[in-house]
Design brief:
Elements (H helix, E strand, L loop, with lengths): L6 E3 L5 H18 L12 E6 L3 H11 L9 H16 L12 E9 L9 E13 L2 E12 L5 E12 L25 E5 L3 H9 L9 H5 L10 H12 L7 E7 L7 E11 L5 E9 L6 E9 L1
Length: about 300
């Protein structure tokens, strides 16, 4: 993230209010026929002295299958930072519509363990606005530090796509090479996801995006049914990788196809060792066991 003077927010933004404002902003844009410029907000947003709620942490660990611990899971830190990131995307000068954006990929550096007792400074900003063959994509960068410290403890880059939005001055990239055909491995786990999965994750993450909550709210935004949160799926895969990952690691995930609820999701995990015989990397992939369509894939590697 390019260092800039941040906008200091007094309190953690309310995600429910941000979604309401995003809906109103989308209605205004449709009414006025306004199109954003190809310029991102220069300011970062920051909230200082953030602490985790112990009851919420416990509920998160239980839902995701994380071992009970005083250390905050990397996915929990993403959820903790998410309202700050959303507040940047909710600005009037953010050029893309917040509602309906598609989560393409996520890259996290967990540089050091963070305890639930730690007070944290959370900063978020946006960068790297660029074309996509079906719209425009942008990187949302969130950083977590121990309060008053300069060293990073956690850093996450989330890439989002505004499908069907083409901004002036941003060219469409040339078509890339076709992805190799996916051949499902033997699963190491099969998850049964109920229709309430989106609501359960929203309760622990605060992400009440309507596409995840119910059939009716998802259909209002053009989907045939509600879908599981991408970060719920990725964080559950990270939990299945387990404690072998240690306290510092890089966690990358790329999302392919949504998981429409209710559904079954098959997961395959394979691990690699380095020259000394120590764990070096785990690869994971998840797919629909009926159709064979891949939902997401990624790696967890030693940092």
């Amino acid at each position: 993230m390019i260092p800039v003077q941040p906008v200091i927010l007094g309190d953690m933004p309310s995600l429910s209010k941000l979604y309401v404002n995003a809906a109103a902003q989308a209605a205004r844009r449709r009414l006025l026929g306004a199109q954003g410029s190809a310029v991102l907000p220069a300011e970062n947003h920051e909230v200082r002295g953030v602490t985790a709620d112990v009851a919420n942490l416990t509920a998160y660990q239980h839902l995701l299958g994380e071992t009970a611990s005083d250390v905050l899971p990397a996915g929990f830190l993403h959820a903790l930072a998410f309202p700050v990131a959303m507040s940047v995307m909710n600005r009037d000068d953010f050029p893309l519509p917040l509602l309906g954006m598609i989560h393409l990929r996520n890259s996290v550096e967990q540089r050091s363990p963070v305890l639930f007792t730690d007070a944290l400074d959370i900063t978020a900003g946006v960068e790297n606005l660029r074309g996509h063959r079906v719209g425009t994509q942008v990187d949302v960068v969130a950083e977590v530090r121990l309060a008053g410290k300069e060293d990073l403890a956690w850093r996450g880059i989330s890439t989002y796509l505004a499908k069907g939005v083409f901004l002036p001055g941003i060219d469409k990239p040339s078509a890339g090479s076709a992805k190799a055909e996916f051949v499902a491995p033997d699963p190491t786990a099969v998850w049964q996801l109920g229709v309430d999965t989106g609501r359960a994750y929203a309760a622990v993450s605060g992400d009440f995006n309507p596409i995840h909550l119910s059939v009716l709210s998802a259909r209002a935004l053009g989907l045939r049914s509600s879908i599981a949160h991408g970060m719920y799926l990725a964080s559950r895969a990270l939990a299945d990788v387990g404690s072998v990952r240690g306290g510092s690691f890089i966690w990358d995930v790329e999302f392919d196809a949504p998981a429409f609820l209710p559904c079954r999701v098959a997961l395959g995990i394979s691990s690699e060792e380095g020259g000394s015989g120590a764990w070096e990397r785990s690869r994971f992939v998840a797919w629909n066991p009926r159709s064979g369509r891949r939902h997401f894939s990624g790696t967890v590697a030693a940092l």
